[in-house]
Amino acid sequence: MTTPDGREGWSDLFLRDGHSVFLIDQPRRGEAGATSVSGDISTKTLDQRWYTQFRIGRWENGQSVTNEGSQFPNDDASVDQFFRQMTPDTGMTSDMGADFDNETVARAVAATIDEVYERTGKDSILVTHSQGGGPGWTAAQYTDHIAAIVAIEPGGAPAADSADFQAVLEKKIPITMYFGDYIDNGDPSIPATAMWQAMRQTCYDFEEAYNAQGGNCTVVDLPEEGITGNDHFMFQDLNNDVIAEHVEDWIQENVQ
Q: Which residues contact 26 (CB under 8 A, 6 or more apart)?
């Protein structure tokens, strides 16, 4: 909806491009955090994890130290707002998301897409992010109204022999996946660097298998496009409008 430094978020940018925009709070997250499923909210100090795992840089002595060339809005007020915008996940016992309920979220996403179809008569372009990428693939098993999937740094992609893969393939859903910077050139001493390389490789594998079977998939490595400095939250970075325009160009070329 917005960025830590108060610029327009993708919801407004894509609205301006002529799309109707529906924002989804996944069950047990964001403004849908109220749940009857019990869970434990971690009391760990996770500042450093947010910086290293999501490739912003490092949190050192209570200060934000970004990667060289970073597009993260790094003034003090924006960093404060960045942390203020976080909400805890509920309904899980692991602060690492190990017991994330992919099936529940996928069915909820599919139901939302069906409701949008009932309201508008139009299929939806589903934009997913990070761990939310998983239920985005699975949702295709439960709705016929996904026009395309735009996966922003999903936590991996389905294997070619999986039910998720077959669902998106059978429904001929065009797919694009976006990855930012500091993956190939990330700090090798940080475990997240190898993690991101491995997760992105599953997406390259998906792209190869999907296209070989007649599908339409593109993995976009932004640095190869000349767009550098982006972390895991590219939709809040200083160049979020540039990336939104890149996504919109893909939509115009690939989505009916």
A: 32, 105, 108, 109, 132, 135
